[in-house]
Amino acid sequence: MTSFPASDRLLHGIALLCIGAVLVALISQHVFDMRPCAWCVFQRLIYLLIAVLCWGALAARRWQPVSFLFCAAVPLAAIGGALAAWYQYDVASEMFSCDLTFADRFMVNSGLDAGLPWLFGIQASCLDAKVDLLGVEYAIWSLALFLVIAVLGIRHLANRKPQ
Questions:
Q1: Average pLDDT for residues 126-141, to the nearest whole number?
Q2: Which structural domains are found in the chain, ordered by start?
Q3: Contact at 8 Å (CB) between 60 and 127?
Q4: Which of 4, 34, 38, 136 suits 142 as a labelling partner, its CA being 20 to 30 A distant?
Q5: What is the 3-state secondary structure of 52-83?
Q6: What pTM value is reported for the model?
């Protein structure tokens, strides 16, 4: 059995954290009937983007500049996700409707909400989607995870060895 170098394990770990976050959201939605708002599904998209960036960096190892760009995009996307989670918590969750916010317009205009409704369907207003998990709002859990991913992504970049 071969083992991955530490930097590869870190990228795989980040990607798996992101896939895990989306799976928890889907279980919450489809098993526990916690309907997502536009900002919820927008954050799912960012988690999936980060996973693709991590695995893209691993796939592009032979092309160092491309691999580096994928790696550099990981913490940037995570910071964007943290901003989305903060906005959901601080602003959108106090609004009666998420209609016409950036997340709503993006998800609708991209066609993802209609094309993959089980994953990206907007089913609640931001106010209605304000729910807790273990006494902490989902948006705060997401914010914390995005910040952890950003730190891990920066750590990976700092420990990256040129080949």
A1: 83
A2: 6-159 (1.20.1550)
A3: no
A4: 4
A5: HHHHHHHHCCCCHHHHHHHHHHHHHHHHHHHH
A6: 0.92
